[in-house]
Amino acid sequence: MAFVAPGADVSPDASIGEGSKIWHLAQVRESAVIGENCIVGRGAYIGTGVQMGDNCKVQNYALVYEPARLGHGVFIGPAVVLTNDTYPRAVTPDGELKDAHDWTPVGVVIGDGASIGARAVCVAPATIGRWATVAAGAVVTKDVPDFALVAGVPARRIRWVGKAGVPLEQHGDEWVCPSTGDRYVETDHGLTEVNE
Questions:
Q1: What is the pTM of this model?
Q2: Across residues 127-152, what is the average pLDDT?
């Protein structure tokens, strides 16, 4: 069974997977799907129809706006923002207050195992690759390749990281994880795991 703390606001139309925990002051909106064994921290917001895989962690006060899609094992740090409006305006060109029919939400897609550091902002539309890491405070304005470590404003790739999140070390034509020993090769399309 899922655990929902007193004071959390979870829509009855949301789907919460077995073993997941929704903490105090978190809000989970209609049609959101949260996988098994996930954690949604205090004050976090999960928008309408957001899709989260299994074993995800959304830390305190993170804002995950629809239509974001998170793979399995995704980490969203404290106060992260995943945006959903390419051209944000409160009013129409005529000065009228916009409503839900006056714009089309676009989402951030995050691949399996990726991590988004504290207070980072991912500006939609953007895809964060599998096992990538977005440094704390970064502003992502374009797609991030698998296994990339990006930092800065705007975010740029500064290193490669492995599945353990540790920066990889170059050994000849390969990149090696000092933590796991996993090996990777760099191609024109990014980093690829070497199969034994």
A1: 0.95
A2: 98
